[in-house]
Every structure is written in C-alpha cells, then in structure tokens.
Amino acid sequence: MIARRTLLTSCALAFAAVVTAAPEETYGAGDLGPLAIVVSKSFPAEGISFGDLKRAYMGSQVMVNGKLLVPVTYPRAAPERIAFDEAVLGMSPEEVGLYWIDRKIRGQPGPPKSVPNAATVVWIVGRVDGAIGFVRASAAGNDVKVLRVDGKLPRDPGYRL
After folding, report:
1. C-alpha distances in angstroms, 22 versus 12, 96, 122, 142?
2. DSSP one-letter string for 6-48
3. Of 11, 17, 22, 124, whose CB count within 10 A is highest?
4. Among residues 13, 140, 26, 132, which one has the least CA distance to residue 77?
5. CB-hemisphere CA count at 13 Å for 148?
6. pTM for this structure?
7. What is the mean pLDDT of each run of 10 residues along the chain (161 residues)?
C-alpha cells in the first residue's frame, strides 16, 4: 500500500512538473515590438501614469478616474511578461519571483492573475470592469482601448514599453 502511494505521489509530482514546465518551452524569443497597455473601451480614462502602472503591477491598489485597476499578466516565462517586468518594474524574472514571495511571507496581497495569451488578456480586459493588461501593440485589436502611458502611445517616440 505504501509503495503504491509513493508511486502515485511520484507520478503526480512528475505530471505537475511537466504541466508547469510546458508553457516555458513553448515561448519563443524575438523582437516583441512595443507593448500596449489595454483596458475596456468603456474605461473612463485615456491614459495612465507610468508610476500608477508600476504600482498596480506591484500589488498596490490603484484607482484611475474612480476605477480600481485589476491587473492581469502572463506566465513568468512569456516574452511579453519578461519585457514588461523589466521595462515597468525594473526587475528580472528572478527578482519578480522573490518580490512576490516576500509579499506572501508578509501577508500582503499576491501577484496579478496570470493568463495564457494575448487573446485571453484582450477578452478579460474587454469584459471585466477595471481590468488592465498588456499585449504586443500589434495584438491590441479593436475590442479594447490602448491607454497612453505618460501621454504617449506605443508608436510615439520616447514610449517606455
């Protein structure tokens, strides 16, 4: 009975390792182009400050024109997530992981919800009141509003993402 339990536990752990590792192996590198900050079309603002964006993605409650921001992100190995975390948070993937572990130990709120791809980000921010996300500018589409960051859009000179 113990051997069977050990075998089942080992199989479960191996399966969990494969499932957890699979997304990292599927992400490709390459030039992302600029990242666009997206919200629903009904969002009551046309822009956000870089500081508010950073605070929202670091776990602080941020209100923009009366809307509490609900940030969504990608899995930790996604190129969009790595680029965003470096540009906005100023942290490597390892530093971001340690940051969220530290917050958890201190009993503070956890990280933004992670979704698998840009289509899911666009779907969520288009339907969840206050949701904010980021996608490659080329993936933003017409279902969402692209916010200005410190007054600049992804195609503008000096855009930080």
Report:
1. 15, 20, 23, 31
2. HHHHHHHHHHHHHHHHHHHHH---S----EEEEE-TT-S-SEE
3. 124
4. 26
5. 10
6. 0.80
7. 34 34 38 91 96 97 95 95 96 96 95 95 94 95 94 95 92
